[in-house]
Amino acid sequence: MAERPDTLEHAPLGRDSAYPEQYDAGLLYPIPRAANRAPLGIEEGKLPFVGEDEWHAFEVSWLNGRGKPIVAVARFRLPADSPNLIESKSWKLYLNSLNQTRFASQEEVQSTLISDLAAAAGASVGVELLAVDDSELAPQRLPGECLDNLDIEISGYTPSAEHLVASEEVVEETLYSHLLKSNCPVTGQPDWGSVMIRYKGPKIDREGLLHYLIGYRQHQDFHEHCVEHIFTDLMEKIKPDELLVLARYVRRGGLDISPWRATPGLTPPSPLRLARQ
C-alpha cells in the first residue's frame, strides 16, 4: 500500500499549548479526507460507502447571559462525504474556547457550533446538546457475537488483508471485538476501541478476521481512516453483498469518536455507547 501523505505538516497540534481564554472558531483544524483515502483506492467523489463520524464531547460548557456556567454533553455527526475531517485536539481546544463566553441561550450555542463546524468540515454537521444525565448516554453492549475468546497465535501487529478469507457458505451475521487499538498520528498515543462488523455474504473465517483486527495494534492513523481501511479491505477480500463497519473508540481528552461506514441501505444501531466510552 502506498505511503500516506503528511497532512499534518503545518498543523499547530501535538504541541504544548495553553487553553484558549476566549471564543475562537479559528482553532478548528480541518484535514482533507481525499489525501488519506487515495492510498486505499478511494477516488474523490466516488465513495464506496455511506457513513458518519459520531462524536461525543463531555467537556462542553459556556456562560449564560448572567454569567452562570452551563454544562452539557454534545453529540456531533460529521458526514463521511464531507471534504474534511476535523482533528480532535483542535476540536477540544475550540470547545474549551466557549468556557468563558456568554450566550443568550442554548439555541445560540447550538447554532454557533453548527456554523463553525460546518465551515471547517465543508458540509452540514449535526449537533445535539444533551443533559449530563440524559438516558441516551447510558452504556450498552454491542450486538452480535464476540470474537475475543478465540485462541489464536498472533504473528504481526500491522494490518494485513491476507488474513481475510471466506468460505462459499453465504451468511448474514454480526461480529465484534474489543481488541481494536491504533495509534494517534499526531501524538503517537494509543487509541483503544471496539469494532462491530455486520455483513451479508461469504462467511468470514473468524480467526483470520480477529488476527486482521489485532493487526492495527501498531498502526498509526486517524479513527476515521482505520474504519475506512477495514471497510475497503473487507469489500475487496470478502466481497459481501452488504457490509457495515462501526468502531466505538474510548474517550480521550473528553472526546470519543465513533465512525461507521456501510454499503448504502445499512445503518448502525444508534445511539449506542459502550461502558469504556
Overall shape: elongated
Following the backbone from N to C, one meets helices and strands in this order, namely EHEEEHHEEEEHHEE
Number of helices: 5
Low-confidence stretches: none
Strand-residue proportion: 25-35%
Share of helix, binned: 10-25%
Overall SS class: alpha+beta
First-to-last CA distance: 32 Å
Strand order of the largest sheet: 5-3-2-10-9-8-7-6
Strand elements, count? 10
Summarize model confidence as the mean pLDDT: 92
Biggest sheet overview = 8 strands, mixed
**Any idea what the radius of gyration is?**
19 Å
Helix-strand blueprint:
Layout: E1 30-32, H1 34-37, E2 50-63, E3 69-79, E4 84-86, H2 88-96, H3 106-121, E5 126-130, E6 145-146, E7 166-183, E8 190-204, H4 206-214, H5 223-237, E9 242-249, E10 255-262
Parallel strand pairs: 6-7
Antiparallel strand pairs: 1-4, 2-3, 2-10, 3-5, 7-8, 8-9, 9-10
Describe this structure in words.
The chain starts with 29 loop residues before the first strand and ends in a 15-residue tail after the last strand. The longest helix has 16 residues, at 106-121. A hairpin with a 5-residue loop joins strand 9 and strand 10 (255-262). The protein is built from five helices and ten strands; from the N terminus they run E-H-E-E-E-H-H-E-E-E-E-H-H-E-E. The protein has an eight-stranded mixed sheet, with helices on one face. A two-stranded antiparallel ribbon has the order 1-4. The protein is elongated, with a radius of gyration of 19 Å. By secondary structure, the protein is an alpha+beta fold.
